[in-house]
Write the structure tokens for this entry.
Amino acid sequence: MASSSYTPQELMVAVAAREIQDGDLVFVGMRLPILAYAVARNAHAPSARGLFEVGLMRDQPAAGFLGTMGDPPNVVGALWATRMSNVMALMAQGSVDLGFIGGAEVDRFGNLNTSYVGDPAHPNVKLPGSGGGADIAILSRRWVTLLRHERRRLVDRVSFITSPGYGDGTPHWRKRNGLLGGGPVAIITTLCVLRFPELGGEAYLASVHPGHSVDEVRAETGWDLKPAGDVPETPPPTEPELTATRRFDPEGFWTRSA
Amino acid sequence: MASSSYTPQELMVAVAAREIQDGDLVFVGMRLPILAYAVARNAHAPSARGLFEVGLMRDQPAAGFLGTMGDPPNVVGALWATRMSNVMALMAQGSVDLGFIGGAEVDRFGNLNTSYVGDPAHPNVKLPGSGGGADIAILSRRWVTLLRHERRRLVDRVSFITSPGYGDGTPHWRKRNGLLGGGPVAIITTLCVLRFPELGGEAYLASVHPGHSVDEVRAETGWDLKPAGDVPETPPPTEPELTATRRFDPEGFWTRSA
Amino acid sequence: MAGKVMAMAEAVHRFVPDGSTVALGLALEPLIPFAAGHEMVRQGRRELELVGPISDALFDQLIGAGCVRQVTAAWVGNVSEGLGHCYRRACEERIPRSLEVRDHSNFSISLALWAAAWNVPSLPTRTLLGSDILATNPGLVAVDGLAQVQAVRPDVAIVHVQRADETGRAHAWGPLGITEEAGLAAGRVIVTCEELVAPDVILSDPNRILFPETKVVAVVHQPGGAHPSPVQGYFKRDHAFYRDYAEQSRSVDGYLAWLERWVMGVPDRATYLQHLDLATLRVSQHRMSEPVDYGFE
Amino acid sequence: MAGKVMAMAEAVHRFVPDGSTVALGLALEPLIPFAAGHEMVRQGRRELELVGPISDALFDQLIGAGCVRQVTAAWVGNVSEGLGHCYRRACEERIPRSLEVRDHSNFSISLALWAAAWNVPSLPTRTLLGSDILATNPGLVAVDGLAQVQAVRPDVAIVHVQRADETGRAHAWGPLGITEEAGLAAGRVIVTCEELVAPDVILSDPNRILFPETKVVAVVHQPGGAHPSPVQGYFKRDHAFYRDYAEQSRSVDGYLAWLERWVMGVPDRATYLQHLDLATLRVSQHRMSEPVDYGFE
């Protein structure tokens, strides 16, 4: 059932969709995860619900293309249109099973930086900031980040932790620091999937996308990335996954741009 | 213009209405103050607005009789139907000019007890509690209470302060204890009107209702009530005041019962 | 998904066990779920902890029936009539049993529920300073010139609304009091409604949906379920009924006779309603809201 | 009461002086008051402190125009395109001037406004623990295992809504983000609206009214005033316009050319709209909400 022709983003959407379990309440966020929710909901997770920090809950994908989570198609059919603080309340109660966060820079312990490259007082690059990222990273039960795999983006340690993963990687760092949720479970990149040990800590290489190699991934990663034994190939998107992706992104706004 | 025939409650409504200044935002509460707002709004305070803790703001009296502030006629024409916490937010910001509180027991410093007579652990009488009374007493800019004048109700010191007035009566007690609002300005009873010095403290006798005397008032008061010089008579309700009162309480539910 | 629509008896049996902390009467005077409360009495519920802002007679009835161990509220009585006689007897004479009271103000009970909704131990406020409520309720503490209001987390919130669908998405209108924070704070929500409508009706206006459906465990179609409290667009407040209850409940015997007639002696709300002059209580002149346009294409 | 209905130029002139703390873009991606922001640029407003959750391009435009001294927000950029180029230049190169940034998360900026709405110094939360946002923003402090979020009190909040009446009572629908707490927290509110309607329309549904009218100081009838952001029932989001802005604003010259074309070179929003293909942006298929009944007799 695997398709031979798909973009890296389409594969990332499929991999992200597989992280959604049936019945999950998913803090969806923006961009590729909006498509991942749509794919999962149409395939293996028919009762997954989506929560959007703009103030929406849904049990099915929107009937029109979404450039942002706040676009009007996302409101029609919504189960709840409310304030952000109410949506955050559910997450603070531990009711959000899975969150997605877009990453600019991630480190070996799953910490995300979307704020500053370099000294915050005189940054080399000012990134847009947390948005809801820090909230998801701290409060959702488990979370996943997606980013383009480049050596400058997968770094040994981020200089600024916007959205905490496992901190300094010492055991129980999250619990010691009072973080409610369980932390990151996967980093989905354009080349591979990284995962974390059951109790958190350092990311390992869990699968490599078709057409790429372990060596290539390691060369593009800013720390000495450990493979987990024999690294399997990431299963490519199935036809139903691709069909659903293309239905919700008919112009390739998210999945066929550079 | 004074009418010769009115009930004590009708006089209390008129006196309470005169406390409302044009443009005031009034935390209205229940019973007689609902009528007082209606009377004031129809007479000298055409731009006074009423706020109700149930979650309503109005700029005119309701078109039907109100047994409670939450009755359906109070919603029609409302300028805002919202949550209680939003109404309380306005009061916490100091935006409420005047509040009304129903009293069971009041003391010489204007403290109200609507909670317990006797030891709270084993009360002689359990009263209903604060409702919004404590909030109004603490947060509104100035407030007024109305109660039946009986010696057991106007006491030297209440045993339980539900809604604080001027505490122990020492200078700046409210400020020292962090209370935002200015405190009580009048106690309107079935016999008279008590007022407070500019900076708060002990209530004095400001006027006596027609048909009653200073001696009678003092005999029915549980502390050595001081008159302010020659005590005038409370001006009786005018015809317009009575007409408005009777329009909004046509059956005498609030103003003609025992 | 297992069906959420069920009879009142089943909803109370399954989701309000003995010892529950139950939030009720959250819109203050309107939309009080009397039918749900009466079913708790019929089922002999015990050791309940009631949570609410003010309670217009329902808490008093549950206390008189011996269902209640603790009350966390700003005001308990009969709004148009005054004192709650069963509440007085329980506090003053331990009849029918002793009662623990956690006093709040209206603002502070709201904040206690917001604290639970946001999952923090407490929230600060400027109210309660100088009040003995602050000194006597162990869930309230003065710190650094502010009152800290500890979270109150109901096991279940029961709300009566004008309309809901089978998944528990509910539309309510009129003043809402502390309904929203109570629903978010509660572990689960029981919705009782005047009308059980198609999901399309509810989803046509998602801004008016009170709670996430994930909180709602039961939907009870119970027309008249809030009587004698008012329901905007459906029922006026039955002032005389409150007055009658106030008078009868002055004595234990009078209360028990009232309870027999209106609660124990009727199997359900439908039978209860047969004893009322519904025609005079029903709202007959409609005032419809202007629709809004959710179009997107 | 002095009339509140006025032109955008007057509203900005009177109620958004230099140095104001201005809350904008409070519903996140929809209902962004771009027309108000552009008028601030035309009037040469300076030393503003901007407050918002995320900002979809409007903060970037105001920063590029040199209006802004400080930003208090969770995210500043271009939601569908990514980075905010003017924001980057200001932070990295002080072009056109230096910028102070107070980082928040979405949840914490909401709480900062609730703190102001309830007039308390701060509110506690479980978010931000372990984030360097907590370490670097002086308005955030870790105390006893919680983050304390200090109040943020805007001088003025500007909201674009679907409809309002002459007193500023406003109906908005779709997701509302942090609109409500920002309006309550702000000293005053400017309402810009697609439709200026009769009070009867608004008062027919008091539950949908956003703020107390006592907060509202100006009402500007400004159809299309949120373009390129979407307005449920009125306008789709203009994705291409955001893309175009992102591309042009990569360079200072490109940004200034964009600004000249869309802001400085047009006197008002009506003229701006003449340059757009409004027919393709307008919502034409209506989806009306089911009315509710506010009857009482």
Notes: Chain C has a mean pLDDT of 97. The longest strand of chain C covers residues 68-77. Residues 252-264 of chain C form the longest helix (13 residues). The two ends of chain C are 32 Å apart (CA to CA).
